[in-house]
Design brief:
- It is a single chain.
- By secondary structure, the protein is mostly beta strands.
- The protein has no helices and six strands.
């Protein structure tokens, strides 16, 4: 990718997010297990305890190759 490691973690992910970062987001959808779903630069993030329509601040807990997990901090 043009010789750049920007946005990559040790697993080679192209995730635009990193563990520990915080974002203000709007929950757009509901996951199969009841978690809220938001997207950050098109990247899917599951937010525990959030409901569709919520506007919340989240902290990223875990990042996988194609999605991440977060919790509400405010």
């Amino acid at each position: 990718m043009f010789g750049s490691n920007y946005g990559k973690d040790e697993r080679g992910s192209n995730a635009p997010i990193s563990e520990g970062e915080e974002y203000d987001v709007k929950i757009e959808d509901l996951g199969r297990d009841g978690d809220g779903i938001t997207r950050i630069e098109g990247f899917v993030v599951f937010v525990s305890g959030a409901k569709v329509g919520d506007e919340v601040k989240i902290r990223i807990n875990s990042v996988r190759r194609n999605f991440g997990f977060a919790e509400v901090v405010e």
